[in-house]
Design a protein that fits this description.
With 153 residues, this protein is α+β, with helices and mostly antiparallel strands. It has helices spanning 3-19, 21-26, 59-80, 87-92, and strands spanning 28-33, 37-43, 49-51, 56-57, 98-106, 114-124, 128-137, 142-151.
Length: 153
């Protein structure tokens, strides 16, 4: 990894974790990020419970985590195609990224001490990126999968 790429990845981490209020509220942390994929960690907290009897994650938290991971991967894929722009211009491009469509399949209750959401690019075009995401718990049980289409241009 070049110094420029490391600097860019660090800036993306700071932006997604510290500058986006909802991501901060969820308490997400970026574990890994590249131009093709990313993984995001979410710790279990009482505030994220949707079923108080089971003490499982709210479905909206599951969906939001899949979506923010998909958005991160879409943004990174778009950055890969942004050669010739300054780092500031690349980061400003985030304003153009938005969810067009999100499909979520809930497979198991969101039980666990922490969760890891991974996403990878299926296709990035000039205007739209399609991303596949998976959410697993600390025992590596698959909790949910998603596919998202994101505006990137």
């Amino acid at each position: 990894m070049s110094d420029d790429e490391k600097e860019l990845f660090d800036a993306v981490r700071a932006l997604f974790v510290e500058k986006i209020p909802f991501n901060k509220l969820l308490g997400t942390e970026i574990e890994e990020v590249s131009f093709e994929s990313a993984s995001v960690r979410l710790g279990f907290r009482d505030e994220l419970v949707g079923n108080y009897i089971r003490r499982s994650l709210h479905g909206g938290v599951v969906s939001a985590t899949l979506d923010l991971t998909g958005g991160l991967v879409a943004f990174m894929g778009a950055l890969r195609n942004a050669d010739g722009r300054t780092p500031e211009e690349k980061m400003a491009w985030l304003a153009n990224v938005g969810t067009i469509d999100l499909r979520v399949d809930y497979l198991r209750p969101g039980l666990g001490a922490h969760f890891l959401c991974s996403g990878h690019v299926l296709r990035t075009g000039n205007k739209v990126a399609v991303i596949r995401m998976e959410l697993v718990n600390d025992e590596e049980s698959l909790i949910a999968v998603g596919t998202g289409a994101y505006l990137v241009g």
